[in-house]
Design brief:
Elements lengths: L8 E6 L3 H12 L4 E4 L17 H4 L1 E2 L4 E2 L2 E5 L4 E5 L32 H16 L2 E2 L5 H12 L7 E2 L1 E2 L13 E2 L11 E2 L23 H7 L3 E3 L2 E8 L10 E7 L9 E10 L2 H12 L14 E4 L4 E6 L13 E6 L4 E6 L12 E3 L7 H17 L1 H8 L4 H4 E8 L6 E5 L9 E5 L8 H14 L2 E5 H6 L3 E2 L3 E3 L23 E3 L14 H13 L17 H4 L4
Parallel strand pairs: 1-2, 1-15, 2-12, 6-25, 15-27
Antiparallel strand pairs: 3-4, 5-6, 7-9, 8-18, 10-11, 13-14, 14-15, 16-26, 17-21, 17-24, 18-19, 19-21, 20-24, 22-23
Amino acid sequence: MGDTRQYDYDFIVVGSGFGGSVSALRLTDKGYRVAVMEMGRRWTPENLPETSWSLHRWFWRPKLALRGFFNMRFFRHVTILHGCAVGGGSITYATTMLRPPDKVWDMGNWAGLSDWKREMPQHYDTASRMLGVVENRILGPSDRLLKTAAEQIGQGDTFYRTHVAVFQGPEGTPGGVTVPDPFFNGEGPERTTCKGCGGCMMGCRHGAKNTLDLNYLYLAEKRGCQVFAETQVVDIKPLDGREDGSAGYEVTTVNSIAHLRKNRRRFTCRGVVVSASSLGSMELLFQLRRPGSLPNLSDQIGRHVRTNSESLIGLRIPGYKDDLSKGVAIGSGVYIDEHTHIEAVRYPAGSNSMSLLSTLLTNGHPGPGRIFQWLWNLAKSTVTHPIRTFKVMSPRKWASECIILLCMQAIEAHLDMKWKRPWFWPFRKMLVSHGEKVPTFIPAANDFAEKFARQTGGVAMSMLPEILFNVPGTAHCLGGCVIADSPACGVVDYRNRAFGYKNMYVVDGSVVSANLGVNPSLTITALAERAMGFIPPASDNIWNDSAYEQDTVDALHL
């Protein structure tokens, strides 16, 4: 093309989660010079927190000097749990790798844009191989109790062992065995078989969890990709006055944990991959829709945000004979009806801080009536069973006595995010949820939890924000920059190309256009593999890749 400009990199990838790490490796393998800008810290087994009470090493709120890898964002419509680290949410996720039902490809904005049912299986296979996905071989006490509970309601045949990204030895053998790289013909790091300590969501201290810094990102760095940790992207501008980005981009970064010396830096590149997670990508792209940055981005940013229609409930069994924290973070699940499935979740022993958000399960309609019902339940329980109520509400031994029940549904429901100044903080714009409320709780799941509690002698539990504020919780925020046929309906096309710009892509959970009904990490990884497959090798790239509405006509014929 006759372009003599010297660029710092061919591609800059924003974020190192399941979309960013895949992009980094595949682009590096195609001969591109790649840099990854990651806002979070780099973690090792030596500096991970031992329990969730180490808030400064667990929670990510750098302005409060909390520099961990886990965060909770509170919105009017939903509480979102997510990760922030080199390796993205893989450091704190529960390793569960499930494929969604085929019907999700016929739902939402991406329906009909490609032959998804034919294309996706090969990408799921690649993602599963790279992430070392196996059927879980370590069933803990919680898993066995879940199976019994499913049998009691006539759904025992739906019980399944989860597929997990964990290096496990043969079933029944002790963990803790260290071996040379078992996944990448010796090119990866040595690994240690899982001990079933339940610590996946606190960061694996034993080398068993297949986090992205041990596979995709590890290989990308080994092959020349540069990763900039604690580096936040704050601006992206087209170069040389080419408003469509055809001349490349200038990417501005700052130190994400510094209060004063932000170390503002600028990098140039030919292409950009935004992979900052659903929340992060929405937040960044909203900020960039301004004159001088990327004003031609679709005005559909923030639309069609999905929560997987989740509900977090559980039960606590004070004094139970077995340690319910043992196993992998999510080792099993059951289907209680055709739309709803429930997984048994655990934190490791000693990680009891989440107990502060749990309380007695309470049904009823959202609002003051449900709050009064909760207060009545709490008062009644305290009067009739004071010691037991104290034990149920006490943080002590919470992780060892509690089964968290993660309920998900593959049904169509969504909300929107807007970029505005909230009434309580008019000094700057921020993400604010908007639209119809997502259902706060799932009655069928609550009914199951109550039956489960009666069978085990335990007490069913709800999330406190759900009762007090009518706000559900989710660890699986999706959408906000969805795949669609035009900028009037979404932010990227069927090849993850951002409408309005050349050589700009969005590759993470924000592009997902339907409720998956299962843990989304495997789908995000598979979608990233697919997106990177469209980008040609470096030697063949003419740097003219852009999304046009007419391209969707050809999508089914690729």
